[in-house]
Design goal:
The protein is built from 11 helices and 10 strands. By secondary structure, it is an alpha/beta fold. The structure holds ribulose-1,5-diphosphate.
Length: 324
């Protein structure tokens, strides 16, 4: 039995950076995965079509195994590995490189297009409340600012990793007035907000939105206060496995992100749980803004079927032997 050629350093590095959140955020993770596959395609020393394909699948599996919740990662692998085609190594390599280029171009275009749609929902003088750091959500603000609208933001800190600080920095670069608040102050400041604006890691077939832990509590509070909730999510965030009854795995992260060992020991015998994401039920979401327009969450399934059919393939897995 021959073993698959090893993955390149570029794939190892990208996988390690995704797992440790040096690279984070669903769209950014998808881009990094596609770019790592391109390096693997260029640098692998696989010398037959079968070993080339096996090497690409192995790289795909290494990337797939890093973080479980953002479906943009498997969707990036689906798009790129699924377009690998050819009878010799050169043809396979060319098709893979073409697919990774097309995928990253698509990411840029999708983010720009959904930003226009989201910006149209914002009026001059509006204040948005944000949670975590989402490049899709920020694209909406960026386009609103380009349209000449004056936008302010209340930015939730987003414990435990404080991605709100990244959001605050990038909003300031856009010239947006920013007020930073701790997560538990969100309800207090919802009275000053015209929209809640968040991104998504995955969107389920029923319109449920999987995003950074704390999004669902924010959405429930916003509904109670009458503040509309806009989710900015390009279509690579649609989770095709949910069409066939699968649920989205919620990543549990290390407890040291929320408590250090000494403090934990001082407190005594406790359990610590650190889920990275939660699910906001569709009834709390007003609009999902994509590059194909805005959708009420309940109708996102139509778009999902159009893009993925009834089921999702997994081109990073070893092909199964045909049944005799
Ligand atoms: C990031 C997060 C973001 C989404 C959308 O979580 O929840 O809201 O990934 O981001 P983490 P984008 O920091 O744990 O990766 O719009 O950039 O895809």
């Amino acid at each position: 039995m021959t073993s698959d050629p090893p993955v390149t350093d570029a794939v190892e590095d990208a996988a390690a950076d995704i797992a440790t959140m040096e690279i984070r955020g669903a769209a950014t993770i998808a881009r990094a995965a596609a770019e790592a596959l391109a390096v693997q395609a260029r640098e692998t020393d696989a010398d037959s079509p079968a070993t080339f394909e096996a090497s690409m699948r192995r790289a795909g599996r290494r990337l797939y195994d890093t973080r479980p919740t953002a479906v943009s990662l498997p969707n990036a692998l689906r798009y790129t590995l699924g377009r690998m085609d050819g009878d010799d190594v050169e043809a396979l390599r060319d098709s893979l490189l073409g697919a990774t280029r097309a995928f990253t171009d698509r990411l840029d275009r999708a983010q720009r297009d959904l930003g226009q749609v989201g910006a149209n929902r914002l009026r001059d003088g509006d204040t948005v409340m944000t949670h975590c750091h989402s490049t899709d959500a920020l694209s909406c603000v960026e386009h609103a600012v380009e349209q000449g609208k004056d936008i302010s933001a209340i930015v939730k800190e987003t414990r435990p990793r404080n991605q709100g600080h990244i959001t605050a920095t990038e909003l300031r670069e856009l010239g947006v007035d920013v007020t930073l608040v701790v997560d538990s102050a969100a309800r207090r400041y919802l009275d000053d907000a015209d929209h809640v604006l968040v991104g998504a890691d995955s969107i389920a077939a029923d319109g449920g939105v999987v995003n950074k832990i704390g999004t669902s509590g924010l959405a429930v509070n916003a509904r109670e206060r009458g503040v509309p909730i806009m989710v900015a999510a390009q279509t690579i965030k649609l989770h095709p496995d949910t069409l066939t009854g699968h649920t989205v795995e919620i990543e549990m992260r290390d407890e040291t992100e929320i408590i250090d060992a000494d403090t934990r020991a001082d407190i005594g015998d406790i359990e610590v749980r650190n889920p990275a994401f939660d699910v906001t039920p569709p009834r709390y979401v007003d609009a999902i803004v994509t590059e194909s327009g805005q959708f009420p969450p309940e109708s996102i399934v139509t778009l999902m079927r159009e893009l993925f059919g009834e089921s999702a393939d997994r081109p990073w897995e070893e092909p199964t032997e045909p049944q005799q």
